[in-house]
């Protein structure tokens, strides 16, 4: 998914967050759980979708290599028009699409054409550069899901673009069901290869359930609550909030009173500073400026036409490409 903001935020890691964005300091209260509230971000025009963004925030930029988390819906397509995202570029990252409700048709410049469906992972690798489109299908009445970005490390960020599709088999236990789409959890392992170790899973918990998760202590983890309310290691996390667990957490207990749905994300601390702006992940201000210039050059002087170049042209596309917004009047800062 594109970041369709006209003025993409520049978030500097390490700055103190506001009370509305961060309501718990794990070091201060001893719980080991940091709870981040989302901020609402409107995408596009007046009828467009609004997403809830928890990564990046002023307080935290990444969880492992996960560098962007937009959570949206349930969105009534009759009111918003659904998703209709024209050609836009990416570089230096992967996009992970995970739906709860609805369908989205994906087309990219590496020749991939696929439909994103609930319970199925679509993982697009931008690498050196890719462009793609995303359009909700005519059968979709409600859109509900999450769009996640993964920063690629130095040795992979300039590689060839690619695409992976995976349908994880659900695993179950007393009062819970899990679908592990990246990494390993609860005895299930995804076959999808990643450039850095990662965890991505959907958990469904029935009312009154208690589940102990054995976690990799080398990872930091995030627990996003889509539905219900969850107690994570004794800390109550409300709907749409993101609970953060620092490295060193070998296990945690999840408890719910009513039915709940969660996303669990994780990975070892990324260890590389990144510069992230609009739809690009780079390492320096100058590099991102260059990405933007190369995309704008592909737009050329034509009426809604996209020329070939670094980011290619999505297969079967008939929509005019999205121009890059203006850069801020300041250097883009690193996120760590």
Automatic annotation (TrEMBL):
Gene3D superfamilies associated with the record: Jelly Rolls
Coiled coil: none
Domain of life: Bacteria
Domain Pirin C-terminal: from-to ranges: 202-297
Compositional bias annotation for Basic and acidic residues: 1-13
Domain Pirin N-terminal, residue spans: 50-150
Signal peptide span: none
Pfam families associated with the record: Pirin, Pirin_C
Ranges for region Disordered: 1-41
Family per record: Belongs to the pirin family.
Alphabetized PANTHER family for the sequence: PIRIN, PIRIN-RELATED
Entry protein name: Pirin family protein
């Amino acid at each position: 998914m594109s970041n369709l903001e006209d003025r993409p935020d520049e978030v500097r890691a390490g700055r103190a967050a506001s009370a509305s964005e961060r309501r718990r300091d794990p070091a201060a209260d001893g719980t080991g759980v940091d709870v981040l509230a989302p901020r609402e971000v409107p995408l596009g025009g007046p009828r467009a979708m609004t997403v809830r963004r928890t990564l990046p925030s002023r307080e935290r930029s990444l969880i492992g290599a996960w560098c962007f988390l937009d959570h949206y819906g349930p969105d009534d397509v009759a009111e918003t028009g659904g998703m209709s995202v024209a050609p836009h570029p990416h570089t230096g990252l992967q996009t992970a699409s995970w739906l709860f409700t609805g369908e989205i048709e994906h087309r990219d410049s590496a020749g991939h054409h696929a439909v994103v469906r609930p319970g199925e992972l679509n993982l697009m690798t931008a690498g050196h550069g890719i462009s793609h489109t995303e359009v909700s299908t005519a059968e979709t009445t409600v859109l509900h899901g999450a769009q996640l970005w993964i920063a690629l490390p130095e040795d992979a960020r300039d590689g060839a673009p690619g695409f992976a599709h995976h349908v994880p088999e659900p695993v179950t236990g007393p009062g819970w069901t899990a679908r592990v789409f990246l990494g390993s959890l609860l005895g299930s392992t995804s076959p999808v290869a990643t450039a850095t170790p990662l965890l991505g899973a959907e958990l469904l918990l029935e009312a009154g359930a208690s589940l102990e998760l054995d976690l990799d202590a080398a990872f930091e983890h995030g627990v996003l609550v889509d539905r219900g309310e969850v107690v994570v290691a004794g800390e109550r996390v409300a709907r749409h909030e993101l609970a953060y667990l620092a490295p060193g957490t070998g296990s945690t207990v999840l408890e719910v009173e009513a039915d709940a749905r969660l996303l669990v994300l994780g990975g070892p601390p990324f260890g590389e500073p990144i510069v992230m702006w609009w739809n690009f992940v780079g390492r320096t201000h100058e590099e991102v400026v260059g990405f933007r210039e190369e995309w704008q050059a592909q737009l050329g002087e034509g009426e809604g036409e996209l020329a070939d170049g670094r980011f290619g042209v999505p297969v079967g596309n008939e929509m005019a490409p999205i121009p890059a917004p203006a850069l801020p009047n300041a250097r883009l800062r690193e996120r760590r």
